[in-house]
Amino acid sequence: MIVSGSFHGVKRDAALISLQILAVQSIFYLCLSMLQALADVLLGVPLSVDQVVNFQIITLRNAESLVRIAVCLVNSVLCAVTLRFIVGRAKQCLDFSFTVYFLHFLLCWLRGGSIPTAASWWLMQLLCVTITTVLAEYMCMQVELQDIPVSLAPVCQAHRQFSWSCTSEALNALQVKSWNWFFPHPSTLLTPTNRRSQQSFAPTCSVQRDCAGQMVCHAGTCYAAIPVFGSSCKSQSHCPLSQACKFGKCWKPQDPKIAEEFIGADLKSCAAHSDCRRQEVCTSAKCVPGEPTADECSISEDCHHKEACWNGLCWKQKPTSSECTSHDDCDGMKVCSEGVCRDTVLAVTCRTNEDCHSPALCRLGKCVKVAAASQCVKHEDCPGNKLCTSEEQCSPGKRVSGVCNALRRCATGVCKLNFCWIFATPVPEPEPEPEPEPEPEPEPEPEPEPEPEPEPEPEPEPEPEPEPEPEPEPEPEPEPEPEDKPEPEPEDEGEPDPETEV
């Protein structure tokens, strides 16, 4: 069996699937017939092909029926081994197991003339399907988790060289692989020696799936690659530009020169940044992955040349390598430190308000803007280079080296827009509320001495009732004065009257 040049291709080959079903079904009935014949010999009953599809013999009433049930269970194990070699994919084991036993059900229906009604027969079929599926998936998974053997068959197919020498070498490699499906032979693994011999074939390719085994496509040629330790991916977007997603891992070319020139998966053509997806920039008429800078923006015209505005930040083309020997080897505002290009914190200086992006203003030589209180739930809710704190407030942050996604976390910091970030200023963790100290019980106050009861005031003596005043006597009427009463002449006590003296 010649292995395809792609691994788990998305295209379904109807002819291949039909041949696989036919092969598995044939081996299923071949093994079942041989086991039933062996059971007939042990039980001393005549041989009959009818026992393979006769559902009426499956009961729980006698020893012969129990032997027939044991035969079916053993055959389910052999069917799982068949799926391991013919199908070879854990993801498809359930489909093929159900197909095999569904066709067996149809054949039993045609033979008996009616649908089986015995509960024992249905329970046995369910148990057989479960054993076949679980065991086949386990064996296929063990193979998929191993180092991937590289045989010569894909190379022969890539070059369309179906010579007897190439085919025989491929079959020998496959034979070694088949006998060592749990422990592959060292000669089939991708060792440095095998890599050099494999590169001499130089199979051609146009996309990643054209390269077989541990190889990646670059510039129309398949090159040997090695997996990146600790990486995981589901699509090319989960891997850096210098790597390719294959077998659920990110792979990079073994040759450092090829790694520098590596362009990753198929790139979309573009004429402007708007033709690309988010977090991509248009460079040389191709959409390539980008990385955010420290510059904020509202449209792409606010950014430097060849930069695009996404999520309120200017994005530039992601460098293909982080190794450096001097600062000139690093892009943008990065500097070379310990042989690696590292990110720096950009301090924007200004002289006038025109030097700052709106609505920022120039204050004391720095571009500043009014910080409005904002609420957030996740980091993507915050604009620009801000991150969401535990208090659901947007706080300034800065990007550090490293990429991330739903399957890959940052070693330090948090993940925003598939890149690792840290807070520009340490975010103080909320202090736990101090537990209220138990209030001391108040000391009982001494009971006041009882005050002597005041003596009752003597009741005031009742005032004597006033005696009734006597009625006033009528005043006597004045006596009438006499009318012609001569007035008495005053008596002279002093000087004598002069007239008398004369």
TrEMBL record:
<keyword id="KW-0812">Transmembrane</keyword>
<dbReference type="InterPro" id="IPR055531">
    <property type="entry name" value="DUF7107"/>
</dbReference>
<keyword id="KW-0472">Membrane</keyword>
<dbReference type="GO" id="GO:0034067">
    <property type="term" value="P:protein localization to Golgi apparatus"/>
</dbReference>
<dbReference type="Pfam" id="PF23416">
    <property type="entry name" value="DUF7107"/>
</dbReference>
<dbReference type="InterPro" id="IPR019185">
    <property type="entry name" value="Integral_membrane_SYS1-rel"/>
</dbReference>
<dbReference type="Pfam" id="PF09801">
    <property type="entry name" value="SYS1"/>
</dbReference>
<feature type="domain" description="DUF7107">
    <location>
        <begin position="204"/>
        <end position="252"/>
    </location>
</feature>
<feature type="transmembrane region" description="Helical">
    <location>
        <begin position="93"/>
        <end position="112"/>
    </location>
</feature>
<keyword id="KW-0653">Protein transport</keyword>
<dbReference type="GO" id="GO:0043001">
    <property type="term" value="P:Golgi to plasma membrane protein transport"/>
</dbReference>
<feature type="compositionally biased region" description="Acidic residues">
    <location>
        <begin position="489"/>
        <end position="502"/>
    </location>
</feature>
<dbReference type="GO" id="GO:0005829">
    <property type="term" value="C:cytosol"/>
</dbReference>
<keyword id="KW-1133">Transmembrane helix</keyword>
<keyword id="KW-0813">Transport</keyword>
<feature type="transmembrane region" description="Helical">
    <location>
        <begin position="65"/>
        <end position="86"/>
    </location>
</feature>
<dbReference type="GO" id="GO:0000139">
    <property type="term" value="C:Golgi membrane"/>
</dbReference>
<feature type="domain" description="DUF7107">
    <location>
        <begin position="269"/>
        <end position="316"/>
    </location>
</feature>
<dbReference type="GO" id="GO:0006895">
    <property type="term" value="P:Golgi to endosome transport"/>
</dbReference>
<feature type="region of interest" description="Disordered">
    <location>
        <begin position="427"/>
        <end position="502"/>
    </location>
</feature>
<feature type="domain" description="DUF7107">
    <location>
        <begin position="323"/>
        <end position="369"/>
    </location>
</feature>
<keyword id="KW-0333">Golgi apparatus</keyword>
<dbReference type="GO" id="GO:0005802">
    <property type="term" value="C:trans-Golgi network"/>
</dbReference>
<comment type="similarity">
    <text>Belongs to the SYS1 family.</text>
</comment>
<feature type="compositionally biased region" description="Acidic residues">
    <location>
        <begin position="430"/>
        <end position="482"/>
    </location>
</feature>
<feature type="domain" description="DUF7107">
    <location>
        <begin position="375"/>
        <end position="421"/>
    </location>
</feature>
<protein>
    <recommendedName>
        <fullName>DUF7107 domain-containing protein</fullName>
    </recommendedName>
</protein>
<feature type="transmembrane region" description="Helical">
    <location>
        <begin position="21"/>
        <end position="45"/>
    </location>
</feature>
